[in-house]
Amino acid sequence: MHMRALVGLVSALLGISGCERRNLDQCRVPDLPCEDGRFCKVAANATVGKCELAECSASSECPTDRPNCSPQGRCFACGVTSDCSKQTGTPICDVGRCVECKTSKECTDKSRPYCEDPSHACRACQRHSECDSAPSSRDGVCVKDDTLSTLPTGQTLLSGMCVPQDRIVSVDQSCTGTCTVQDKLTEVGAQKPYLRLGPVMSTALITVRPVPGLPEVHIVSTLADYSPPDPAGKDKKPNAILTNSNGTVLRVEAGASVTLEGLLIKDSKVGVACVAGGNATKVRILRTLIGQTDVGIQSSPGCELSIEQSWIGEGPRDRYNGLVNTGNLLAMDLDGTKFDIVNTVFNNNKPMAPGTFSGIWVRNATATTPGRIVNSTFVRNESASTTRKALLLDCIPATGTIAIVNSLFLNSTPTSGNTYVHADCRSTAQTYLGSDDPTLTGDNNATDLVFSDVFNAPAFGDYSLTNATDSRVRDGGLTQFVDGGKNIVPTIDMIGTARTATKLSRGAFEAAR
Hints:
Elements: H1 2-20, E1 26-27, E2 39-41, E3 49-52, E4 68-69, E5 75-76, E6 92-94, E7 97-99, E8 114-116, E9 121-123, E10 168-171, H2 181-185, E11 194-197, E12 200-202, E13 206-208, E14 217-221, E15 240-253, E16 257-261, E17 264-275, E18 281-286, E19 289-299, E20 303-308, E21 311-313, H3 317-320, E22 330-335, E23 338-342, E24 345-347, E25 360-363, E26 371-374, E27 377-379, E28 390-396, E29 402-405, E30 408-410, E31 419-421, E32 430-431, E33 434-435, H4 451-454, E34 455-457, E35 462-465, H5 471-475, E36 482-483, E37 486-487
């Protein structure tokens, strides 16, 4: 009996110890730690973790006080740069963290020249200022397209790269006497494809001609990151000012291709003239204001015109007061021209004589020269032809090639038979418009808007949308408009604010959300 009792007691004790025996692969910090040399890894929302030999496989798995994962799977905080020498892609120590860069000088990959803060990772440049040789030096130029991707090996410039200083021709206040913008333009070529302007005032004709071996000439101001109404540029007066009271400011000749970025063009007979003579000639205008001219832009057959994030007419008063206080007598005269107008404002273009036209005159359009107006704003262009009755867009002869999408046409309610878009310019591809013109036809057009209810401060040239603006204007734009196989609805607005994929505002400005 005694032996049976002893065996029973031992069995009972073993049973009790078996219930309390711990699974050494599981852990709970701090009361159930892992064995030495193993680490407790707890999944999200779990209370019990698993003991593993490696503490981490990536730095993202490490705590903030030890933010780096070593090749041995240990989290650590660096103290000096040598602590990061074995960290692939992050060889520099910054406040305990191994990073790719602390300044852009450490970004040696030409395709990713800018050091982003606070991530301290290298990326492609997006703004010219990100390529400055020193903070606020305003001498940097960022490549923003691939028009120079076909240059010979060693000269190729791709989107997102910074242009080396020795490949930029500069014009500023030191250019005096016989030195002119036109003189400097002759230095532009495949080796030096960029002409940087500012601060400079030019008062003579500038002619852009085809340059052998150079697909496109780029003329960029030192403030080209800012569109005319950009609040970030409010205290930065335009400093690349081109005028010519006796004639044309800038003439682009047959066969040339040019991008104009961040300029102020004013006080002239013609602001920009594209004289193609039937030859393929391309003019792209970015973040530029054209005002106080007899004709803002004039083009001939063979021209292709692209305007983005620009301003045609009287400028925003908080930045252009005293510089451009009136619009153009005629905004555009486009003859046989293929054109795109995107994220652009037409403001207060008025003819000298009452009863004449001051908007966009489209002549001799064909199927090969379509026009597209997308997310643009037309305001205060009040005079109209007494015979044609068009306020903003007129076409001779009639054409059905003009698409207008997500755009605003507002002044005061048109009277006496006037209309913003002449019947000879209308097409089925004119949709999602906002206006006070009930004669405009098309899908999802809002033609009963009130001018003063749509914009924040129109009396001061502020045509951003009010928080209380009509929901059809605020959130009712067309998000997909595929033309030529490409969605041409812009992903940003006039000042660079992102446009969403679901709710999209009409006009040049995206509503605040």
